[in-house]
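tool=predict chain=A
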Amino acid sequence: MRKSLLTLMFAGILTVSVTAANITMKGSDTMVRLGQRWAEEYMKKNPGSVIQVSGGGSGTGIAALFNGTTDICMASRDMKPKEYADAKAKNLGVARIAVALDGIAIFLNKENPVADLSISQLRAIYTGELTNWKEVGGPDATIILYGRENNSGTYAYFKEHVLQEDDFADRCQTLPGTASVVNALTKDTKGIGYGGIAWATTVKHAGVKSTDTSKAVHPTMEAVSSGEYPISRELYFFLRGEPTVEVKNFINWALSPEGQKVAESADYIPLKAEAAKANVLK
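tool=predict ok
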C-alpha cells in the first residue's frame, strides 16, 4: 500500500508524499498556516489527495498562477487593476474566491505599555511623522518600525488602508514573513509591527481606533466578522481557467462548515455561512 509522508518544513512550506503533488497552493505568507491546516485535514479525509503549500507573498502567488506553476494562488489582498488587466490580456480566465476573513493586528512587545492606537497615529508612525513612543502615550523611546516586503498582500493592504498610499518611512525594516515580524517584536520592547492575527502568539496586539476619538477595537473573531475592527479583510483563493475536479472538491470542502471550522481552529475568521455557501464552485 502506498504510504504518504507529510512533512511540515520550518520555513513555512508543506510538502507531501512520494509522488508529485496533484494540487499546489502558493502565495500569501499570512495564509500559509491556514493552507497547511486545510491540506492536512483534507488529506486525512482523502488519502489519495496530495497537496503542496508554500508562501512567498501574495504577489509571488499571483505570478505563479499566471505562469501556470500553481493550481491555487493564496492572496491576502485583491489583485491590482494592472494584474486583472494582464490576466484579461492573456485570456487567463482568473476567478477570485473569498475563503476566510482576517484582521491585520498591530503587534507590540508585551512590555510596551501602549494599549491602543488610532489609524491616524499608525499612519503617522509608519510614514515617519511620529518617531517617539511618548508621542502616543508611551515611554520616551524611539519607535522601531517593522513591516513586510512589498510583494506581500499584507504590505499592500496596510499601505492602502492605513497609510492611504503614502510611502513607508525609510527606516522601516522589511521582513520576509509575519513570523519574522513577530520574532523581532518578541525581543524588541521599542518595536511595532503588523500582520495577520493568527500569528500573534508571543506578542500583544494593540486596540485600533477608527478615529482619534472613537473606542479602541481589538481583532477578535466577532469584531473582524462584523467589520467593527477597522483593519479587517477577506482572504482569497485565485484560480485560472476551469479548475480540475480535485481542486474544485478541495475548495468546496474548505468552504464547507467543516472546512470553516478548521479555519477557526487555526485562529482565522470563518466566513459567514451564507457567504461561504455562495462561494461554492458549481
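Residues 1-21 have pLDDT under 50 and may be disordered. The radius of gyration is 19 Å.
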